[in-house]
Specification:
single chain; GMP Synthetase, Chain A, domain 3; alpha+beta
Length: about 110
Amino acid sequence: MEDVINNVDNKQKLKALAVLYNVMDPELFVNIMDLGLVYDLIFTPQSILVTMTLSTSHCPMGEAIVEGVKNVLAEQFTDHVIEVELVWEPKWSFDMISAEGRRQLGIV
């Protein structure tokens, strides 16, 4: 386990995941991580691929959220190509919201 924690790529991936907590859903005012919108993050020395969804395929703020993901990662990882892949399976549900996200939304 210590090898995983001390691995440089893993530390960078953890940093990238932490940065995504700064991307807010502009309608709900909760970050995309606590909303459970990020499904995967593949970090390589050259690129970052974020696989994520939106609460609905017709989300009016979808482009803004995707651009927010690209922007926060590009600020921290200037030498990486940032890609976002939107997927619709598995379908997002309220069950994916973290305890912190539920607290922020007033869902107990």
